[in-house]
Specification:
Elements lengths: L2 E6 L5 H10 L4 E4 L8 E7 L14 E4 L5 H4 L9 E3 L3 H19 L2 H9 L15 E5 L3 H12 L3 E5 L9 E2 L1
Parallel strand pairs: 1-2, 1-3, 3-4, 4-5, 6-7, 7-8
Length: 173
Amino acid sequence: MPAILLAVTGTDPQPWSDRLRALAPQRDIRLWPDHDPADIAYACAWHAPRALFARLPHLKVIFSLGAGVDHIFADPDLPDVPVVRIVDPDLTMRMTEYVVLHVLAYHRRQRLYDVQQRERVWHEHAQPPASAVAVGVMGLGVLGAAAAGALASLGFRVAGWSRTAKTPAGIEC
């Protein structure tokens, strides 16, 4: 049976491996770098080592384990196989939270208040209402549309860009 390679760098792959094995106990799951390249038909990857995929002669598809696929397409030796991004409700929510966190921190001048707090100084600074602030979102796929919608629901004027025609509610395209 063709094996699945879990190629993850920068984080512990064991939780991914445990979850995959629980969901598909009949599948042969291998962890990079301990694998025979000839056995691998599927790769689940997050920032895999450069040229890894080119060394897998029977590779049929690559699944990105996180938001985005840029890390895969950055490999100049990428073989001609389908690349699949995973869309997951939890990932979408976490990315939306991350975007909202940073937009609000910027909008509410959080870094300035953090500095003042360390210096034991309190000066109030003007903060316009969200409705007076425009936020741009480049890319209105699943993640971008969710983040744009969350920002619009907070009252920000949101403008979005997409390669394909879209008409999301509350977002200027």
